[in-house]
Design goal:
By secondary structure, this protein is mainly α. It has 17 helices and no strands. The chain starts with 5 loop residues before the first helix and ends with a helix.
Length: about 400
C-alpha cells in the first residue's frame, strides 16, 4: 500500500500547503477585499515573507549542499529581519496605537540584528560558506552555552511573544474587535510554537501550527467577505438615499447635514435639532408635494425613534427594534421618519454616529472610536467617514491637532 513518510508530510507537504493557504489569504486581501488600512502594507509584507520562507523549505531539500544552506540563510533572514517586524507593526496599528518613526525602525533593527547573528554564527560554526570560523564563536562569547538558534528564539520572543501578550491585554481593556483578538492570539501561538520547537527539537511543530493558523486566517477572510458584502449593500443604500434627498427641503446652511458633505467643523446636537425643526415646523423651501405638515402624533413618534437611536447608537441598531420600541410597523416607521425629518433612518443613524465620532477622535484612536460609535469594522468606519466628510479619520485627527 502506498504511504507517505511522516517526515515528508511534516517538512515538505505541510509547508507547501501552508504557503498556498497564505497565498489565497494574500490574494483575498489585495484583489477581493481591496483593504486599504494603514496596517495593510505591513500585513502584506509579513505574508509575502512567510510564503517565501515556507516555499523555500522543500526547495532547500532538493538543492545541492552549498545552495541548500544559502537558501536556508535567505529564508530565515527574510522572515526574522522583515516578516516578524512587519507583523508586530501591523498588529500595533490594528490595535489603534499611535506609532512614531522610532516605533517603526526599532523592530526592523532588532530583526536584522538577530537574523544576522544567526547567519554569521551558524555559517561560521559549520560550513563557512559566507563567514570564516571566527564568526562561529560570536554567540558563545555573548551567551553562556548558547547556540546559534538561541538568537532566533530571543528575536521571536522580543518581536512576537512579549508584544502579543501586551497587545492582548491592551485589547481586552479597550474592548476592540473579536477578529483583532484572534489575530493577536494567533501571533502569540505562532511565536510560542517556534520557541517550543527549538527548545525541544520539535522543528515540525512550527510548520504544523503555521498550517492550522493559515486555515484559520483564511476562514477569517471568508467571514469578512460576508460582512463586507452586507456593509457594501448598506453603504450603497445610504448613498442612494443621499441622492434622493430633495435639496429644496433643507436650507443651504443645513445641506451639509442632509447631504453628508464637508463635516470638517464638528456637528453639534443643535445641527440635528435645526434640521428636524426645519422639516417639521417651517414651510420655507417646501414644494407643493412636501407641503403636508406632519401631525403631532407623527412628530412624537419620530422623537421617540430618535431618542432610541441616541441611546443605542454605539450598538447594532435594527429597524425592527426601533419599530418595536415605538410600537408601529416597520413600513409605517420608515415612511413617517422620512416624511418628518426628510432623512431615512439609516441616514440619521450614520450622521449621528459621525457627529459623536468627531468628538471622540479628539482623544481616542480610530479603532476605539469606530467601536464606540457602533461600527464593528474600523476599515468600514473609515470608508463611511471619508465618504461623508471628505477626510479620513486619521487626516481629521491631524487637522484637530
Amino acid at each position: 500500500m502506498f504511504s507517505i513518510p511522516l517526515e515528508t508530510i511534516l517538512y515538505h507537504i505541510t509547508p507547501i500547503m501552508t504557503g498556498l493557504f497564505l497565498l489565497l489569504t494574500l490574494t483575498y486581501l489585495v484583489v477581493i477585499r481591496q483593504y486599504k488600512g494603514a496596517d495593510f502594507p505591513f500585513y502584506v509584507c509579513f505574508l509575502l515573507c512567510f510564503i517565501i520562507f515556507l516555499f523555500g523549505r522543500p526547495l532547500q531539500f532538493y538543492s545541492g549542499h552549498t545552495l541548500a544552506h544559502l537558501i536556508l540563510y535567505i529564508r530565515f533572514f527574510i522572515l526574522f529581519a522583515i516578516g516578524f517586524p512587519s507583523l508586530l507593526i501591523a498588529n500595533k496599528m490594528r490595535c489603534g496605537l499611535t506609532l512614531k518613526t522610532f516605533s517603526f525602525v526599532v523592530p526592523y533593527i532588532l530583526g536584522i540584528s538577530g537574523a544576522s547573528v544567526f547567519v554569521m554564527v551558524r555559517d561560521g560554526c559549520t560550513y563557512q560558506i559566507l563567514f570564516p570560523i571566527e564568526y562561529g564563536s560570536l554567540l558563545p562569547l555573548m551567551f553562556t552555552e548558547a547556540t546559534y538558534s538561541d538568537m532566533l528564539m530571543i528575536t521571536t520572543a522580543v518581536l512576537l511573544v512579549f508584544p502579543s501578550v501586551y497587545l492582548i491585554y491592551y485589547h481586552l481593556r479597550h474592548n476592540l474587535q473579536a477578529n483583532t483578538l484572534m489575530i493577536l492570539l494567533s501571533t502569540l501561538v505562532l511565536g510560542g510554537s517556534y520557541i517550543i520547537g527549538e527548545v525541544f527539537d520539535l522543528y515540525w511543530l512550527f510548520y504544523a501550527v503555521a498550517f492550522l493558523l493559515s486555515v484559520f486566517w483564511l476562514s477569517l477572510g471568508y467571514e469578512d467577505i460576508q460582512s463586507v458584502k452586507k456593509q457594501a449593500e448598506e453603504l450603497k443604500q445610504e448613498l442612494n438615499d443621499i441622492l434622493l434627498v430633495n435639496p429644496k427641503v433643507i436650507p443651504t446652511q443645513d445641506r451639509r447635514v442632509a447631504n453628508h458633505q464637508s463635516l470638517e467643523t464638528p456637528l453639534q446636537d443643535e445641527d440635528f435639532e435645526q434640521l428636524y425643526h426645519t422639516n417639521t415646523g417651517d414651510t420655507v423651501g417646501l414644494t407643493k408635494a412636501d407641503s403636508n405638515q406632519p401631525t403631532i402624533k407623527n412628530r412624537e413618534l419620530v422623537d421617540k425613534a430618535i431618542s432610541y437611536i441616541k441611546a443605542n447608537f454605539n450598538k447594532e441598531i435594527e429597524l425592527a427594534a426601533i419599530a418595536h420600541y415605538t410600537k408601529v410597523s416597520d413600513s409605517y416607521l420608515i415612511r413617517t421618519f422620512k416624511k418628518v425629518t426628510g432623512k431615512t433612518i439609516n441616514q440619521y443613524i450614520t450622521c449621528y454616529r459621525l457627529q459623536r465620532a468627531q468628538q471622540l477622535l479628539k482623544n481616542h484612536s480610530v479603532v476605539e472610536t469606530s467601536h464606540a460609535v457602533g461600527f464593528k469594522n474600523a476599515s468600514y468606519f473609515s470608508t463611511v467617514f471619508k465618504k461623508h466628510t471628505g477626510l479620513s479619520p486619521l487626516h481629521y485627527q491631524q487637522k484637530l491637532h
